[in-house]
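Consider a protein example.
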Amino acid sequence: IEGLDDEKVEQAFVEAGAVQCGFCTPGLVVAAHDLLQRVPRPTDAQIREALAGNICRCTGYAKIIAAVHMAAGSA
């Protein structure tokens, strides 16, 4: 995603299988990146709150939450 200085969130989404159709991925990655800048080791609840404005109909959210934990280094 253009403009992000660190690709660890993007890579974590790929590795966790949190990417399907790609429609919601940019918004989720940017929101996750912002969250990790503010909260380096977020809880599931913090991740869910940070990503609440993004809807994903393909994957469900388990893999997305796992990807954020992976990017945070806590997976």
Notes: The chain has one domain: 8-72.
